[in-house]
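hiii, so i know i said id send this last week but things got crazy w the move. better late than never?? heres the sequnce for the chain we talked about at the cafe, plus the structure i predicted for it. fair warning i was half asleep when i ran it
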Amino acid sequence: MNITEQRIRTIFLQFHLSDMDLDDSALLRFAPGELILQEGMEMEYFLLVVSGKAKVCSASANGKDLLLCYYISEGIIGDVELMTGSHIANATISAVTEFICIGLPYKKYEEKLKQNLPFVNDIGRELASKLIRSSKKSVITALHTCEERLCAFILFAEQEGIFLETLADTSKSIGASYRQTFRVMNMLCRDGVIRKENRVYRIADRRELLARTPDFYLE
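okay and structure toks below
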């Protein structure tokens, strides 16, 4: 994707950063599957999302991954770390599609960003929105079936009708066992909702897939 200077200026304006000296900012591109942040590692950049989809995971004590949010496709990455004064990533983020961000070097811009009141207000709204959505999703996820969560994840992660995620990663992402995920995937294939093609799956009946996905996940 060709990102124009006008698009970058628009994002800076959106986050009230147009008056700051941002000469050291960098345009960062991540390929599908590429790691953007690693939980527990030091963050080099504060990130403004330009385009693409990524998934956010946090490691549990037993070594399994728990998906915190099915997607991030806009907004800010690093807001929690910035406001808590930590340079250590509190979650792992990996690209689902090509993911493009504007990176602001943390060490140079940390204090300048905190002194920008309109930007800090944006951060506050972003954190409040994430908290509300996370709380709501925690409750709803506990009430929905594995099939519903899987259908939602397929719709989120698909690229032009193709679902590329491995069953191992998918099971971690939806909070189900590998065996349970495998069984539901086979059921969706038998029902004609998806179709297996070599090592990937293709959406065969998008309308039915949408019908099996709770409205909440489509918001």
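btw The radius of gyration is 19 Å. thought thatd interest u
miss u guys!!
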